[in-house]
Inverse folding.
């Protein structure tokens, strides 16, 4: 399992490399040859290419309701592990909380750095509608999906830590399954709401799972095994 971490990080970088480009003004968007592209109006030179086979059918209309639901699922996925507090020894609870929150903090930093390095247009920016306020400010923050990065970090880290600290808990399989279900649900809704392309969500899942695995294995080394 430990060997999967560098492989997952490498996969996320492989997704990012063909998307890298300099930032541009949020104007002149169009779809060309089934490839999602931001276009320099003065040259019509496409860049920030997407993955046609994966992203070509992504919806470009924004759905505020689905966006809100995806945010609620993320919040629930991150907070549901607190259910273990009812059966944790104090020393385990504090240590696990530090490891878990540390992984989430690292995932947050990683997704912010990637968004700066890869200023990719969001799907709703391609709809042709006006971009104002928050929509304009976040128009080039599509890669990777931050919600998916955090949700998959939480789910992966929880899976490993729960197996270490609560191997015999009757709650463990239900909580772990619930967090994974919410993580996948949030990821699907990021695409359905017009906020991200499928490749953004895939990259977020890879980055989040890699960081979650790293934090989880760190917890296994640092924390005593539960009964």
């Amino acid at each position: 399992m430990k060997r999967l971490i560098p492989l997952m990080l490498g996969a996320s970088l492989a997704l990012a490399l063909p998307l890298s480009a300099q930032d541009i003004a949020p104007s002149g968007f169009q779809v060309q040859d089934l490839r999602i592209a931001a276009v320099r109006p003065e040259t019509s030179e496409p860049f920030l290419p997407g993955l046609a086979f994966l992203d070509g059918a992504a919806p470009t209309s924004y759905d505020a309701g689905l966006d809100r639901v995806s945010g609620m699922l993320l919040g629930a996925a991150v907070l549901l592990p607190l259910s273990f507090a009812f059966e944790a020894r104090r020393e385990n609870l504090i240590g696990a909380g530090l490891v878990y929150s540390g992984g989430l903090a690292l995932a947050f930093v990683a997704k912010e750095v990637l968004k700066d390095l890869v200023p990719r247009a969001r799907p709703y920016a391609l709809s042709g509608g006006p971009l104002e306020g928050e929509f304009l400010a976040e128009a080039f923050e599509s890669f990777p999906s931050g919600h998916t990065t955090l949700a998959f970090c939480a789910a992966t880290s929880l899976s490993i830590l729960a197996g270490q600290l609560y191997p015999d808990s009757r709650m463990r399989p239900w909580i772990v399954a619930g967090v994974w279900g919410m993580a996948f649900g949030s990821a699907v809704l990021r695409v359905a709401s017009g906020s991200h392309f499928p490749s953004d969500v895939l990259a977020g899942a890879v980055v989040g799972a890699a960081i979650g695995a790293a934090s989880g294995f760190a917890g296994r080394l640092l924390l005593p095994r539960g009964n």
About this structure: The chain has eight helices and three strands. Residues 13-48 have pLDDT under 50 and may be disordered. The chain has one domain: 4-24+50-222. The helical segments are 4-16, 52-55, 64-79, 90-117, 133-137, 146-165, 172-192, 198-222.
